[in-house]
Amino acid sequence: MFESLKQKYARFIIRRKFLRKEASAVSYNKILSDAIDFFFIMPEHDDDFYHSLDILKYYLIHKKVITLFLPAHKYNLIPEKDKYKFVSFLPDHVNRVYLPRKNMIASLSAREYDVVIDLNRTENIFFSAVANIVKSKVRASFGKGKSDEYYNLVIGGKNQESETAYRSFLSYLKMF
Question: In whole angstroms, what is the distance from residue 32 CA to residue 80 CA?
Fold first, then answer.
């Protein structure tokens, strides 16, 4: 019960402080293919992490500037580290209600990207908050829990196996 109250409080904080309502309409025609700066929030589960690397390779081949947000202990799992920018975090950067601490919020809110893509297939309030703290017009993710509130582009795939879900997600992103 206490955990669910903390999660509800965290969602309330995200809606109050970090969600931005776009005043103008966003045209999704070629919005991802024309974008240059991408901010990828890497998955927390190891199997998902491994299969999500194909999406990174696709955007790397298309000469996009990619910044990865990942836990510090997963830094060594990324191949070709010199081709990416990194923003890493430690477990102590997460507060008691699963939100980023103030110093991380200040650091992330100064960043601006064309597209933010959350590659987590399960709901995680911390990553949803990070996706909304960073300034961006487009936020994409898998369909999960309350994802409609936090992201512009949402695709199903939570119930599929990991490899199939990430291939479907990449096909979906290619349409834009």
Answer: 23
* Paired sense of beta strands 153-155 and 37-41, if any: unpaired
Determine contact, residues 130/69, Cβ cutoff 8 Å: yes
Q: Whole-number mean pLDDT of the chain?
A: 90
- What stretch of H or E contains 65? strand 65-71
Contact (Cβ atoms closer than 8 angstroms) between residue 55 and residue 162 = no
Tokens of 171: 């096909």
Render pLDDT for 12-46 as a digit per residue (tens, 0 to 9). Answer: 888 888 877 664 666 777 888 899 999 999 999 99
Read off the pLDDT of residues 37-85 as tens digits, 9 standing for 90 and up. 999 999 999 999 999 999 999 999 999 999 999 999 999 999 999 999 9
Q: What angle do CA 47, 18, 110 make, to 5 degrees?
A: 85
Provide the H-helix boundaries in 30-93.
Answer: 31-34, 46-61
pTM > 0.70: yes or no: yes
What is the fold of 2-16+28-174?
Rossmann fold (3.40.50)
Specify whether the backbone of 161 is left (phi greater than 0), alpha (psi in -120 to 50) or beta. beta
DSSP 158: T
In what helix (H) or strand (E) does residue 127 lie, and over which residues does it extend? helix 125-133
